[in-house]
Amino acid sequence: MSEDPDDPTEVNDGLQIALEEQQALAESSLPLLFEAYDDAADSQVERPVVILLDCEDEIGGEIARAWLGAEEVDEAIRDREASSDSEDSTTVYARAFAWDDCRAEIPEVFPYLAEVFDDDSPENTFLTISVTAGGASALHVPLELRDVLDEEFGEETLNGEDDAEEAE
């Protein structure tokens, strides 16, 4: 059986797979998301939105190369490939921007995300745009996940604070 691009069932299946991959990327990158969010908050960025890029995805890679330069992204991919134990892993990059900037710029690249910026994020969350699988999804990350991750990874990883500094 061949794939029929006009078959709505196959289109819906493909969309569902992409959405699941975008969510999985965000879930597997939670420490990085909190780090980007905290850096933005420390820099007084208003209502930070974290953009999470799969640098090995066509679209995510293009954005990452525009932000960081092709050489830096390609080197990061080579380093990850050389040190990776899992074929499932990918090279990711996260950066946070102000809500108003994202409201203006994200829909230019991903028009289907425009309505995400019509309303505020739910209380005690921050918005993440996960770019992989040839597209993007908007996900609200609950701030309470920090507590769970602090237990799993240690406070140093997620609060941007060094445990040694707290001991002083």
Kindly describe this structure.
With 168 residues, the protein is of the alpha+beta class. 53% of the residues lie in helices and 18% in strands. It has eight helices and four strands. It has helices spanning 8-28, 30-42, 58-68, 70-83, 99-109, 145-153, 155-159, 163-167, and strands spanning 48-54, 92-98, 125-132, 135-142. A four-stranded mixed beta sheet has the order 2-1-3-4, with helices on both faces. The radius of gyration is 17 Å and the shape is globular. The termini are far apart.
Concise description?
The protein has 8 helices and 4 strands. It has 168 residues and is an alpha+beta fold.
- The helical percent reads 40-55%
Q: How many alpha or pi helices?
A: 8
Give the SSE string.
HHEHHEHEEHHH
Mean pLDDT: 86
What is the distance, rounded to the nearest whole angstrom, between the alpha carbons of the first and last residues? 66 Å
Compile the SSE list and pairings.
Blueprint: H1 8-28, H2 30-42, E1 48-54, H3 58-68, H4 70-83, E2 92-98, H5 99-109, E3 125-132, E4 135-142, H6 145-153, H7 155-159, H8 163-167
Q: What labels describe this entry?
A:
168 residues, alpha+beta, four-stranded mixed sheet, 8 helices, 53% helix, 18% strand, globular, disordered C terminus
